[in-house]
Amino acid sequence: MREVLSKAGIGEEASHAAFVGLDEVEGEDGSFNYRGSIPQEKALRPEVILAYEINGEPLPREHGFPLRVVAPGFIGAGSVKWLSGVTLRDVPSDNPCQAREYKLFPPGVTAETVDYSEGLMLGELQVDAAICEPEEGEALDAGPVSMRGYAVAGGGRSVEWVDVSSDGGRTWVHADLQEGAGEFWAWSLWEAHLEIGSGEHRIVARALDSSAGTQPVTAEEVWNFKGYANNSWHGVGMNVR
């Protein structure tokens, strides 16, 4: 991305890179092309690319053929698919998706009282971990239980460890980090083994990144009426026989 922008020329007042997609969105005032922007500082970093291939093959249509933005560590809305144009602006994109939809507000703001101009633009991802196996409500036999999942961190930080708990966070078991461990911008896969007795249990997971950032215990701690940026402990309930 930075090679393209540098060759095109970057004005002194430019502070955001805005992208136009070929897909159309239906809004209150009719249809429009999807657009989004990221700060110019992020756009000029080496990890942000314009992708036309994946694993040596042309980019599949569902992933943005013929060209898409890839902005690792940023919310997915910034990695615009089916790219048709890039412009540099002195303000973020005014596309309704970004100007209204992808905004973060304090807990006291509601859909009835919101002033969208006062919202914080969503950007870098926060550290997060999720349990993929076992699934919610799965029936298991008492004894050793294998847990698998992924963790991710934004802002150029790496996932350093993942812990899981079967007693609401009173005690924790350290997970083994596998593929992607210690790498920037990558999902880190993990696996943990717990000894669980019979009965109903809720297993929770949490991650810690290289800046010592971790996750809040509950969604109430990061509540907002849009529901964004919820990186609280992820949990699955299960019935152990």
Q: What proportion of the residues is helical, as a percent range?
A: under 10%
Task: Look up the CATH topology of the largest domain.
Answer: Sulfite Oxidase, Chain A, domain 2
> How big a fraction of the residues is strand?
35-45%
Calculate the terminal CA-CA distance, rounded to whole Å.
54 Å
Number of helices: 3
Report the top-level CATH class of the largest domain. Alpha Beta
Q: How many DSSP E strands? A: 18
Average pLDDT confidence is: 92
Say which CATH homologous superfamily of the largest domain is assigned.
Oxidoreductase, molybdopterin-binding domain
CATH architecture of the largest domain: Alpha-Beta Complex
Order of helices and strands: HEEHEEEEEHEEEEEEEEEEE
Spatial strand order of the main sheet = 11-18-17-13-14
Major sheet size, sense and barrel closure: 5 strands, mixed
Shape: globular
Number of domains: 2
Q: What value does the Rg take, in angstroms?
A: 21 Å
Q: Low-confidence parts lasting 5 or more residues at pLDDT below 50?
A: none
Structural class: mainly beta
